[in-house]
Design goal:
The structure holds 2 protein chains of 2 kinds.
Chain A: H1 2-11, H2 14-32, H3 38-49, H4 54-71, H5 73-79, H6 91-99, H7 103-137, H8 141-158, H9 163-177, H10 195-198, H11 203-220, H12 240-246, H13 248-263, H14 269-283, H15 296-319, H16 325-336, H17 350-378, H18 386-405, H19 408-426, H20 432-454, H21 466-500
Chain B: H1 5-22, E1 36-40, H2 47-63, E2 67-71, H3 78-85, E3 93-98, E4 117-133, H4 141-148, E5 154-156, H5 163-174, E6 183-184, H6 190-198, E7 204-208, H7 209-217, E8 221-226, H8 241-245, E9 252-260, H9 265-280, H10 282-291, E10 295-298, H11 300-320
Helix pairs in contact in B: 2-9, 2-10, 5-11
């Protein structure tokens, strides 16, 4: 109990609170600019934390990430440009809502669900971190292989209208992911001897290109339907209470799923959002409404990506193994501040770790008012005429694409993939599966190859471990479902004429 | 991995501050008169990134100009090392070179070698170590090597042909075993490798002590040997290769600061003296020792020789174990 009181003293101090507040504003700003990710926001904070006390330093990072992940929804909903990869799963849905004049409902629901998801993820972190970490540590390449398959399957089979087109789109993404040197064999592929390509195609410029640049191209060619007028400004949170009450199961499911996936090192908020969105559609009573601007999928996915943040801290704190790229950076800062990750972190200086937990809760609650203000001000974007807005967006996109690696190559990647994305969409191919292919392609290949190396070529090994077997069976069942449905239909059709004859 | 937009914002702010602070002191145009870029060839969050960032923030105080860290990642370090080598040799772009500069050209990935740089200083080296699960049946390297003889063991810790793979293969060869008697399972780095070790996926992991520290302290992993002539500062009980198996084999990763070849001597001299102050500062020592990173200092000439020797050693081991092209 003493430790908790000490922790409260550490949190409720002017410098800590000021650091949290400033980090929150910074996170909202970075997250809402397409291409600037939560990871980037944290990396930028690192040099500043050198000069801070441990608790404000970690608190600033925690707050900054929570804000950035939510803020990624804002340009996604308003402009169809996801601010961070974690928002990509439901960007189409949110944008459709904006087109129907429901931007506030989309963002307001996203905000509230993000807060709830964040709180649930944090509660799990506080209460069951050691247990969860044990589970997460048992994931080896076999389980990750199936998880990657499951993520890709969600994107292709469930989240899109036409699985065949979704699958082709995915293959384009996987092809792009195979470029470069970072494959298990360490062999350069499709690099044409060009050093920049050794690094492969980074998915941030790819994502900005496919979503944003293709949208700008479409606008230039006059293919965009005029936007529905901005709905009369009303209370952002009105009517959201009803959505929350109606979809409380979705929110709970999304949050738990997000926490679990977030706790796995190597899988984070982006995969969590995809699988949550797919699950939402699968179990929905109104699956046909998905993709038309229906709020249900947003509740699952927004809760999932924010709860994944709490989850990612589980293996990081307990075993020093990063749950995502953000915690990878945070671990470095933890060492720097003498809060060495490991079970000892709970024994030596427990007040510090309790203070960090308190900041987790505070950050998620702070998200509510600050997110509200951010949505209110961002909504003005819709009032700007598109011919002025589009060049400004292009500028921001170029900054984001450049910032990933500080090279013009990022901008070239963005433009090239923008053209590819435009051609794909004009021909009815969804781009979201391609993005997930780029994000997960390396994980898929690496886990497949290392699993086979480990099993010395024995494919049955993919089913030998219990969790791997479970994930594998579920994945294959999803793959086979369309085949069975087709066979069953053909069978009943054949029977029907037989009976009449 | 990511950085820069906000960094440039920070740079502008810092420039304004630095400008105000520097006004009364020096008005003449002496190096450095504008911000410096420090290229890190590895991703944000890793050890090289952390080292680069602390050096940058301390150099900034010494030089009175912002030092911006830029992560140029990918291609097993090729992309970033190339970017340092091809930058204008004016002292405004410097970078962190890592042990991989002596490996990638042997693998046929690039023509780039250490000769493309003007060395400034070597700042750190971390020897390789071997880690096994805490409940493994072997307590010594001898027992592990004995168990390895029938070719059933698997190891991880980095990608195929990476520094820790080489460390293990070299050790095996040095004690008279086939360098590939322990099968290498490529991983994306030490952390995923260690996770795999704990998950029961592989039998041993080769990586540095600081990388394994949290799991060692959590009692999940034990270290059998450190491939160095000296003991680790934080884990002095881990035997050296000499003590464990009587082998003189040592190998480790190192990090140093370099500028592109052709950088003027006076600029290099300014950087060397600033870096030396940084290296001796309490902040830097505390940071490095706090994370368990080995401190090492070698000025430009010594660093040049060090890189040449490292290159040669790595080449002969890589050829011997079949990792060179």
């Amino acid at each position: 109990m003493d430790a908790i009181l000490l922790a409260a003293e550490l949190v409720f101090r002017v410098d800590t609170l000021a650091a949290i507040f400033m980090a929150a504003c910074f996170g909202l700003f970075v997250g809402s600019i397409p291409g600037l990710t939560a990871t980037m926001a944290v990396a930028l904070l690192v040099p500043i934390t050198f000069f801070m006390e441990p608790v404000p330093a970690i608190g600033a990072m925690v707050t900054c990430v929570a804000m950035a992940i939510f803020a990624g929804d804002i340009p996604g909903a308003l402009l169809r440009i996801p601010g961070t990869p974690a928002s990509a799963a439901y960007v189409d849905e949110a944008f459709r809502m904006t087109q129907k004049g429901e931007a506030e409902r989309a963002l307001g629901t996203g905000l509230v669900c993000s807060v709830i998801g964040g709180l649930i993820g944090t509660t799990a972190l506080v209460l069951v971190a050691p247990v969860l970490a044990e589970i997460a540590l048992n994931f080896s390449s076999f389980e990750y292989f199936w998880l990657a398959c499951l993520g890709l399957t969600s994107a292709v089979f469930i989240a899109t209208a036409s699985p065949i087109r979704g699958f082709l789109s995915l293959l384009i993404g996987l092809l792009i992911a195979s470029i470069g040197l970072d494959n298990p064999a360490g062999t350069p592929r499709f690099t044409f001897g060009y050093a920049e390509l050794y690094g492969g195609i980074d998915f941030i410029p790819a994502m900005i290109g496919m979503f944003a640049v293709s949208e700008i191209l479409r606008h230039m060619l006059g293919g965009v339907k005029p936007q529905a007028g901005v709905a009369a400004v009303r209370n952002l949170l009105s009517g959201i209470g009803r959505s929350i009450a109606r979809y409380k199961v979705n929110i709970a499911r999304g949050s738990l799923l997000g926490t679990l996936i977030g706790a796995l090192p190597g899988a984070g908020a982006d995969i969590a959002a995809w699988i949550a969105y797919a699950l939402s559609k699968k179990f929905s009573r109104e699956p046909a409404k998905f993709g038309t601007g229906h709020v249900e999928g947003l509740t699952d996915a927004s809760a999932a990506n924010n709860s994944a943040l709490g989850g990612a801290w589980v293996p990081a704190l307990v075993f020093g193994i990063p749950g995502d790229s953000v915690t990878a950076i945070v671990i470095g800062v933890l060492y720097l501040k003498g809060m060495n990750p490991g079970p000892t972190v709970f024994l030596m200086n427990p007040e510090n770790i309790y203070a960090v937990f308190m900041i987790f809760f505070a950050a998620n609650l702070l998200l509510l008012p600050l997110g509200y203000v951010a949505i209110k001000s961002a909504k003005q974007v819709l009032r700007v005429p598109r011919r002025i807005l589009m060049p400004v967006i292009l500028l921001f996109c170029m900054v984001g694409a450049y910032a990933i690696n500080n090279t013009v190559f990022g901008i070239a990647t963005m433009l090239a993939l923008g053209v590819i994305g435009f051609i794909m969409e004009e021909n009815g191919f969804p781009i979201a599966p391609a993005i997930l292919g780029i994000v997960l392609g390396q994980l898929l290949e690496r886990t497949f190859v290392t699993s086979l190396i480990r099993s010395r070529g024995d494919y049955l090994a993919f089913f030998e471990r219990p969790i791997a077997a479970g994930l594998g069976v579920v994945t294959i069942a999803i793959w086979l479902t369309p085949v069975f449905i087709m066979l069953w239909r053909r069978h009943s059709r054949r029977q029907a004429p037989g009976e009449s004859a | 991995m990511k950085s820069s937009f906000g960094l440039s914002l920070a740079a502008v702010a810092a420039m304004a501050l630095a400008g105000v602070a520097a006004l009364p002191a020096t008005a003449d145009a002496q190096y450095p008169e504008r911000p410096i870029t420090l290229i890190v060839p590895w991703g944000a969050g890793g050890g090289t990134d952390a080292t680069g960032r602390i050096i940058a923030s301390l150099l900034e105080e010494e030089l009175g100009q912002p030092v911006n860290v830029v992560n140029r990642t990918g291609g097993s370090g090729v992309v970033g090392h190339q970017a340092i080598a091809t930058a204008d040799p004016d002292g405004y772009t410097i970078g962190v070179a890592t042990v991989e500069i002596g490996m990638m050209h042997w693998q046929g990935l690039t023509d780039l070698t250490h000769e493309a740089y003007a060395p400034i200083a070597l700042v750190n080296a971390d020897p390789a170590a071997i880690h096994v699960p805490a409940d493994a049946e072997y307590d010594t390297l001898d027992a592990l090597l004995e168990a390895a003889e029938d070719g059933q063991l698997q190891a991880s810790g980095t990608g195929q042909g990476g520094i820790w793979h080489l460390a293990l293969a070299g050790l095996l060869q040095d004690v008279g075993l086939a360098p590939d008697v322990i099968q290498w399972v490529p991983s994306e780095g030490a952390a995923p490798g260690l996770q795999d070790l704990v998950a029961g996926g592989v039998d041993l992991v080769a990586c540095s002590m600081p990388e394994a520290r949290a799991l060692v302290e959590a009692g999940r992993v034990k270290s059998l040997v450190i491939m160095s002539p000296e003991h680790d500062a934080i884990f002095p009980d881990v035997p050296t290769t000499e003590e464990a198996v009587g082998s003189t084999w040592t190998l480790g990763a190192w990090r140093g600061i370099v500028a592109p070849a052709g950088t003027p001597d006076d600029v290099v001299a300014t950087l060397v003296s600033a870096l030396e102050t940084v290296h001796q500062s309490d902040e830097f020592r505390e940071f490095m020792l706090g994370r368990g990173y080995g401190l090492l200092w070698a000025g430009p000439d010594e660093f040049r020789e060090f890189m040449a020797k490292s290159d040669e050693d790595l080449g002969s081991v890589m050829t011997a174990v079949g990792l060179a092209q």
